[in-house]
């Protein structure tokens, strides 16, 4: 009985019944990141683009063609999930047109096992209809990958 009660209380948006979709994109942080999600577009901007470990990172996610109820972000190692906690992004009010903008502050930790860790920014966008997970494989170099 306790299991069912805690499951009900922790499921405040009914997200367990929503279909989930995942998209993975390459992302050159210096140039900005975009990923097509269904009919919508998700843009990610991280400052500073050098992504220093243990320091605050300003995160902006813009949504075009998607209306979110909640947006969270977390950074994980591509080849070594670090078990980091997601952080919520707050919707910026006062926008009359254009994409919905969500902002927040996050950070990455230093990995002692892999000093050249490839980080993945994992955005979770909950809409009324579905949950969209957008994984951006982050590259801080100034050169383009083809």
Structure report:
- The chain has 1 helix and 9 strands; from the N terminus they run H-E-E-E-E-E-E-E-E-E.
- It has about 150 residues and is mainly β.
- A hairpin with an 8-residue loop joins strand 6 and strand 7.
- The termini are far apart.
Give the strand order, joined by hyphens, for the main sheet.
Answer: 1-9-8-5-6-7-4-3-2
Q: How many beta-strand segments? A: 9
* Sheet/helix structural class: mainly beta
Low-confidence spans: pLDDT under 50, at least 5 residues?
Answer: 1-13
Percent strand: over 45%
- The succession of helices and strands, N to C, reads HEEEEEEEEE
Oligomeric state: single chain
Can you give the helix content as a percent range?
under 10%
Radius of gyration: 16 Å
In DSSP terms (H or I, runs of 4 or more residues), the helix count works out at: 1
Let me know the largest β-sheet: 9 strands, mixed
Q: End-to-end distance, in Å? A: 54 Å
- Outline, from the CA principal axes? globular
Task: Calculate the mean pLDDT score and round it.
Answer: 81
Provide the descriptors you would attach to this structure in a database record:
single chain; 146 residues; 1 helix; mainly beta; 9-stranded mixed sheet; disordered N terminus; 48% strand
Secondary structure: elements and pairs:
Layout: H1 2-10, E1 20-28, E2 33-37, E3 40-47, E4 57-64, E5 68-77, E6 87-91, E7 100-106, E8 119-127, E9 131-139
What's this entry about, in short?
The chain has one helix and nine strands. The chain has 146 residues and is mainly β.
